[in-house]
Amino acid sequence: MPLLWLILIVLGIAVAGFVLGRGRALKSAGGDARNLHSLPGYYGNNVAIKVIVPSMLVMLVWLVVQPLVIDGSVSATIPEGAVPENSSLGLVMSEVRRTAEGLENAVAAGGMSQALATDPDADFAEVSQQLQDAGQVVTSQLTQAVLRAAQDYREMHVFGRTIMSGVVLVLALAGLAWGLRESHKAFRARNTVEMSIRALLIAAASIAILTTIGIVLSLIFNTIEFFKLYPAADFFFGTTWSPSFSGRGGSSELGVLPLLWGTFYISIVALIVAVPIGLFSAIYLSEYASPRVRSVAKPMLEILAGIPTIVYGLFALLTVGPLLLSVFGKDGLGWMQAGTAVMTAGLVMGIMLIPFVSSLSDDIINAVPQSMRDGSYGLGATQSETIKQVILPAALPGIVGAILLAASRAIGETMIVVLGAGAAAKLSLNPFEAMTTVTAKIVSQLTGDADFSSPEALVAFALGMTLFVLTLGLNVLALYIVRKYREQYE
Amino acid sequence: MYDAPLRKTDVETKNTKIVAQDVNVYYGDTHAIKDVSVDLLDKTVTAFIGPSGCGKSTFLRCLNRMNDTIDICRVEGKISLDGEDIYDKRVDPVQLRAKVGMVFQKPNPFPKSIYDNVAYGPKIHGLAKNKADLDDIVEKALRRGAIWDEVKDRLHAPGTGLSGGQQQRLCIARAVATEPEVLLMDEPCSALDPIATGQVEELIDELRGQYSVIIVTHSMQQAARVSQKTAFFHLGNLVEYGDTSQIFTNPEDSRTESYITGRIG
Amino acid sequence: MTDASLNGAEEPRRRGSIHEIDARTRKRNAREARFKGYGIGAILVGLFFLVVLAVSIVSSGLPAFTKTVVKVEFTMSQEQYDEAESTLFKTAAYSDIFIAQLRDTMEEEGVEVAFDEGSIERLLGKVGGTLREFYTANEDQLGQPVTFQLPASSRVDGYFNGRVTREGLTESRFLELTDLDLVDALADAGVITQAFNWTFLTGSDSGVDNPGGAGIGVSVVGSFFMMLVVLVLALPIGVAASIYLEEFAPQNKFTDLIEVNISNLAAVPSIVFGILGLAVFIQFMHLPQSAPLVGGLVLTLMTLPTIIISTRASLKSVPPSIRDAALGVGASKMQSVFHHVLPLAMPGILTGTIIGLAQALGETAPLLLIGMVGFVARDYPDGFVGGFTEANSAMPAQIYTWAARADASFYEKAWGGIIVLLVFLLLMNVIAILLRRKFERRW
């Protein structure tokens, strides 16, 4: 039974449950809602919740767990000899899954008979020919072992789904019966419903924790996998980044230092652009500008923050890069070989960060109490003296926090560097040279053709881990500083 | 100290320091000060009293043009310091405020060290020739602020770490360090406890030797204790101005009397 | 109080007239003016960047919305049709007829320029195929004059946009210098004109060789289904989480943990969410790759912190007196929240959600990791469910794919795509602003 239908049926039962539960409760009160403990709707909701929540929960868990269980049991049946040289069990399993899916689609489209698809003695050449005819993607690697496994896989999959549908429906009906039995005028339906809603609210709030756990687990597991294939010391201290495109391990050098250097270099250029412009804008807007100027200039600057980064990436690649090249390239000063360079990406990233720095600093400068300014003006200080010697020192911790947040943004920024910085990993001081960053390499390693069990792909998770730890550290530090700063003036 | 008798001092022989003529102040559409004319004397403590919102603080802030920092505030009329109009186009408020110092309601030390708090004014006005000179100025100011003994061992500790009363005396020392001629004080003791208030009031009395001190207060007792001259403001009008002893014992205006006896406030 | 009296005798220094500005003050004022100048300068630089960006986008992107077409009136008689259909190379026969007619038209117009089959093919592609397709489908049009709008090749397009110049032209099998003479002549005769490029709005990614046929339509649909997923998931979850944290959560470690997680997730780089999506949704759960459903899930997790933060702010802005009033008449806490607080906070919540959606709509990096790259956006999905599960791209990813291609003709498409993307973002922001204006409440 397709999933959508199952969900719709459960929802249908829930709607029926609502109507029935409400009616039953009303009947028990003799049709007079005033004799009920709770409003009639609560009785209906109680039944509906009891139908939906347990059944859907079981369905979700089943959907996640079933493939894992089947994977485990099918991969145990694959003989060791079936795993070719230069491959892994994981690769074979993805082959199996693809074939199983192909069989399923082919049968559904009528390109293959059910009998052939399930026949354990079917000739794999015939099957793969039929699969290809049915327009299903099959690689040349389809072997007898894979086909058997795929058939097993498909069978277990279909069987599991059938059982699941049954279990879910039974649970939904049981929930219906349970809820209906409770629908009596003395039943405290409102309290029960509110308890359930509260549980749902807590579950929703916990998604933030689950997301973090998901991020950490997906990074850690794959990073460990990577370090099994590639020595950690070479990763952290290697000064060369040259992944091989074809080979599996061995020839690749995956040192993270050039990437980190590129990341920091570009971020520093970006901050050199963004911090003075952003800070001075914030100072002008909060201390000098008239309300009218402020109401125009501030949103205008903030437009820069609302523009998607892909736009900045394109701007770097197609506008700023060629522009810089015409000045610093071989027709000008001769420092630059190509439009993509640290300078290009850094400059554009700086533009992106201007509103980020300025609105954070603006908030922080505004948090400095007016009495500080009065005290300084009262001594005969000019506005700039007050700003430089009283307000900025007072706001310094907050501004440092803002700059750290901007730095963490710069380090994690992807599209601008993917398009604007170039692809070559280099340890160089020349800002007009192309370099690359951690984020850019995550994209290139995971969007290529490399399979997920090779070190060339897994390294992306180690890079992601590095990036996550770096930005998290910066954020925690920045938020701590900013909070301390705010407490000072509260 | 709290029940100091009203002083009868030689106020009549002092020079006039500030002359205000027909001063009107508007906050947007609100008419905050109405036709106030007053002569304020040198080396005298003048108290501005009156119920909240009567305009006494506003008028005080006109005397060193602190109202310039408020966009919607407009000042009309003439105020002169030593015969020079302070609202003249040629006047730079920065220069004016070096002559007319100010201490605020809430102690507002800068988030800097005690030393830097006091040295700030002399530094921006270029009063010190060198570091030793600056040290000297700071010490003198702190002594005048009557706080030297308490802070001399921790000059480089943050000024925000002091107690409320110490902070306010630090702010007075900070104001004194720029060597002003007039010292404006906007309810300097309202945020302080009675003991700290006593210390600050005593200090104000000491300062009278060198400066014209103008103090806004909502405490009539304080006005009586520290001032020689008192001005009573009511709803933006200067109702009565005269010797403190006379205002408190024999007010001419019925509104003054009502306020002093506590019938309005 | 001995300190003060020690120095009591000293007179304060008397300074000069305040009507004369001394040298030091003058210097200080100059410094003040300079400092203020830096501030104005900084703002102007920021605005300058904004203007440059806007001008780049508009000037480079607008050509994507037009295409160069050759507009010719063409008549084919029944005999010609039968004859062409009976030859071995049918499309070539059509081409010959077309060229002959074009030559006649040019002579009538008085334009004298030499051209042959080769140049026509370089300019217009295989004309014969297009014509044959038309006439075999519409035999009733035979013998009547029909006006054809034949799209010119992308290089001819580039010649009109200034991307291809006579000086910079390298002769190739795609375009020769003499062809440009023909193009000029045709343009003078009004045969070559500009037309609105509907293909760009409705089309799909056309592969690396065909920049002229590239369109953003399919990826707009991909983005739409993703936003649907984000809206359906992020809004209820975000609101539920915010209500819990703002109204019910006790002060304890668990609540603190949630709070810390939300504020940290808000600052995690988007690409990390892409890694999460790849590892959890695709590797672990085996959801289909490149599917808008997965993209939507990833973007949901990414925008949740934003939505939670803005929702909490709007819940906070509902004054406690409202809650007290509801509790006072005997409503349960849950009722007071759902009947009174939530409806009052709704405009703020919706505004925050729209802004969160706009942010998600422009996000690119995580989509690349889960396979939603531009070149998979080949066909419109079949039906509603297919919209979620069939491989597709999204607007920003499509733009990225075009920008990363070697053929410079795609750059114009990328800029054009940005205009489309920004129009959507602008619309969403305008709706958010209007909502805020209409329902803004001051307590």
Give a structural overview.
The complex is a heterotrimer of chains A (490), B (265) and C (443). Chain A is mainly α and 490 residues long. Chain A has 17 helices and two strands. A two-stranded antiparallel ribbon of chain A has the order 1-2. In chain B, the strands form two sheets. A six-stranded mixed sheet of chain B has the order 6-7-8-3-9-10, with helices on both faces. The two termini of chain B are 25 Å apart. With 443 residues, chain C is mainly alpha-helical. Chain C folds into two domains: 65-196, no CATH class; 217-439, MetI-like (MetI-like fold, Orthogonal Bundle), CATH 1.10.3720.10. In chain C, strands 2-1-3 form a three-stranded antiparallel sheet. Chain C is extended and about 90 Å long. The two termini of chain C are 51 Å apart. The chains are: A mainly alpha (490), B alpha/beta (265), C mainly alpha (443). At the A-C interface, helix 2, helix 7, helix 9, helix 10 and helix 11 of A face helix 2, helix 10, helix 11, helix 12 and helix 13 of C.
List unreliable stretches of 5+ residues of chain C: 1-9
Order of helices and strands of chain C: HHEHHHHEHHEHHHHHHHHHHH
Going by CATH, the homologous superfamily of the largest domain in chain C would be MetI-like
CATH architecture group name of the largest domain in chain C = Orthogonal Bundle
CATH T-level topology of the largest domain in chain A: MetI-like fold
Instruction: State which percent range the strand residues of chain C make up.
Output: under 5%
> Roughly how much helix do the residues of chain C carry, as a percent range?
55-70%
Coarse structural class of chain A: mainly alpha
Number of helices of chain A: 17
As laid out across the biggest beta sheet of chain C, the strand order is 2-1-3
User: Residue ranges of chain A: pLDDT <50 for 5 or more in a row?
Assistant: none
Determine the fraction of residues in helical runs of chain A and give it as a percent range.
Answer: over 70%
| Distance from first to last alpha carbon of chain A | 60 Å
